[in-house]
Specification:
The protein is an alpha/beta fold. It folds into two domains: 132 residues, Aspartate Aminotransferase, domain 1; 224 residues, Type I PLP-dependent aspartate aminotransferase-like (Major domain) (Aspartate Aminotransferase, domain 2, 3-Layer(aba) Sandwich), CATH 3.40.640. The protein contains 15 helices and 15 strands. Helix 4 packs parallel to helix 5 and helix 13 packs parallel to helix 15. It binds pyridoxal-5'-phosphate. The site of pyridoxal-5'-phosphate has 13 residues, from helix 4.
């Protein structure tokens, strides 16, 4: 018999939705065992509901959005996104510069497919949201990871970034606010990244899907607003800010100098047309969604669930011997450090697997985010306080005796 299926470019790319930890979790679930999932940024299972205005809007429009839309999306949605970009200081974006997608995910992959020839390089953060590395690799490129520095609130290390630019580098990816670290980048860091892109003729890809999930009165700066002379692709969507990850609603906006990217834009248009269009009912809610979101503001303010869960998780982690964690400023992730020496950890995936087997709690190892040293993991702190407390009690107990062989 012939063996079918090609060898996969992605075999060496980490992704948290597959691998031995997920295999074990699925086997445990199949046996009827209960698992507490701290591994995925999906708000709905944790009793976060979409704003009612959004559901009403989608329901009332369903009969009008049964057909394909323009391949870039409904004009009403794209006008609303262009207006939103302007509120963020990104100038000159017209509806023609905007592509809606089945989540930002589809567009991240598309943005790399249209760009890369074999051997081209893209600077991607470490740790990263692993779809970025996977998308670069799938498109035939090489993801070159630059370090984000835990000691500086997980901000990108500009010198490391600079040292990794070669004549094959085509673009820089930033994830701001960041998954998995919860870091929010200040203007000074963004300006330095913009300068690197400017000096080296690179495209900036800025993933800003968490730009509305900020705590402590912080403000988000879109890098595209700081460099109208640099070609930028800015990604956003409603999966997280409106708790509708399952509706698949994202977009990307092109801004800045387009002189050298005409071929790239032609490629994007072709790929966009090839998938016909993104989910049209989901696009229909964009104008309402981008007006205001009082429900989210409440969740992120003191007393709100996301805020209080962040407070609990960061304080508790820092009280456990052998653990430390930088306070996240945005989103709902934390990327704690574990004292690898103390627990003799040489394999972070094994650590997460051992913890899963012992305590039935699912985390993602740092390597899943292209973090090379085996001394981090990610927690999604969406589950309610009681579940987070259970998980931290379990972690503290587990670490009392854990030594990796
Ligand atoms: N970008 C980042 C940084 C994410 O964390 C996620 C999802 O977790 C996505 C993009 C994908 O979002 P979407 O649901 O819009 O595809």
């Amino acid at each position: 018999m012939k063996t079918l299926g090609k060898s996969h470019k992605l075999d060496n790319v980490c992704y948290d939705i597959r691998g031995p930890v997920m295999d074990e979790a699925n086997a445990m679930i199949a046996k009827g065992e209960k698992i507490l999932k701290l591994n995925i940024g999906n708000p709905a299972p944790f009793r976060f509901r979409a704003p009612e205005t959004l559901i009403d809007q989608m329901t009332s429009q369903l009969t009008e959005v049964e057909g394909y839309s323009d391949s870039k999306g409904l004009i009403t949605a794209r006008e609303a996104i262009a207006a939103y970009d302007l509120t963020k200081g990104i100038e000159g974006v017209t509806p023609d510069d905007i592509y809606t997608g089945n989540g930002a995910s589809e567009l991240i992959t598309m943005s790399m497919q249209a760009l890369l020839d074999n051997g081209d390089e893209v600077l991607v953060p470490a740790p990263d949201y692993p779809l970025w590395t996977a998308s670069v690799t799938l498109a035939g490129g090489t993801a070159v990871h630059y370090i984000c520095d835990e000691k500086s609130d997980w901000y990108p290390d500009i010198e490391d970034m600079r040292s990794k630019i070669t004549d094959k580098t085509k673009g820089i990816v930033i994830i701001n606010p960041n998954n998995p670290t919860g870091s929010l980048y200040p203007k000074e860091i963004l300006e330095q990244i913009a300068q690197l892109a400017r000096e080296n003729g690179l495209i900036i890809f800025s993933d800003e899907i968490y730009d509305r999930l900020l705590m402590d009165g912080r403000k988000h700066t879109s890098i595209a607003s700081l460099c109208p002379d640099v070609f930028c692709v800015t990604f956003n969507g409603l999966s997280k800010s409106h708790m509708i990850a399952g509706f698949r609603c994202g977009w990307m906006s092109l801004s800045g100098d387009k002189t050298n990217v005409k071929g790239y834009i032609e490629g994007l248009n072709m790929l966009s047309s090839m998938r016909l269009c993104s989910n049209v009912p989901a696009q229909a809610v964009i104008p309402v969604a981008l007006k205001s979101n009082p429900q989210l503001e409440t969740l992120l303010a003191p007393g709100g669930r996301i805020y209080e869960q962040r407070e609990y998780i960061v304080n508790r982690l820092n009280s456990i011997e052998g653990m430390s964690a930088v306070r996240p400023q945005a989103a709902f992730y934390i990327f704690p450090k574990i004292d690898a020496k103390r627990f003799n950890i040489t394999n972070d995936e094994q650590f997460v697997l051992d913890f899963l087997k012992a305590k039935h709690i699912l985390l993602v190892h740092g390597g899943g985010f292209h973090w090379e040293t085996p001394d981090h993991f990610r927690i999604v702190y969406l589950p309610d306080l009681e579940s987070l407390k259970t998980s931290m009690d379990a972690l503290e107990d587990f670490l009392k005796t854990y030594k990796q062989n």
